[in-house]
From TrEMBL:
Gene: LIN52
Any single GO BP term: regulation of DNA-templated transcription
Species name: Petromyzon marinus (Sea lamprey)
UniProt GO cellular component terms: DRM complex
InterPro entries membership: DREAM_LIN52 (IPR018737)
Family: Belongs to the lin-52 family.
Protein name: Protein lin-52 homolog
Domain of life: Eukaryota
Length: 111
């Protein structure tokens, strides 16, 4: 008669209690590491990371907004930022060309 998977799992369980307090049974791999690990405080738990120290509330709000976007929405936002950066570059170039024209920087020297 075939045993069900639940009966099989029950038969594999062990209720043995292991005493892990004895250094003879469970010796430390490297002496002193347990004390060092216990005394070491995680820098993440005690203070925010360095990059977060200079962020203002608006910056954190924007990070949370970006974090809540779906992948498609985030990609659309990135595309919009790229287009905006490109347009700003074009506008800046046009201003510099106009400025150069008014200052006669591009004028050919007269012979």
């Amino acid at each position: 008669m075939a045993a069900s998977s639940a009966d099989m799992e029950q038969s594999l369980l062990s209720f043995e209690k292991l005493d892990r307090s004895s250094p003879e049974l469970w010796p430390e791999q490297i002496p002193g590491v347990a004390e060092f690990a216990a005394s070491f405080k995680s820098p993440i738990a005690s203070s925010p990371p360095k990059w977060m120290a200079d962020l203002e509330k608006d910056d954190l709000d924007m990070l949370q907004e970006f974090g809540s976007l779906t992948m498609a929405n985030l990609m659309e936002k990135v595309r919009g930022l790229q287009n905006l950066a490109y347009q700003l570059g074009l506008d800046e170039s046009a201003r510099e060309m106009t400025r150069g024209k008014f200052l006669n920087i591009l004028e050919r020297p007269k012979k």
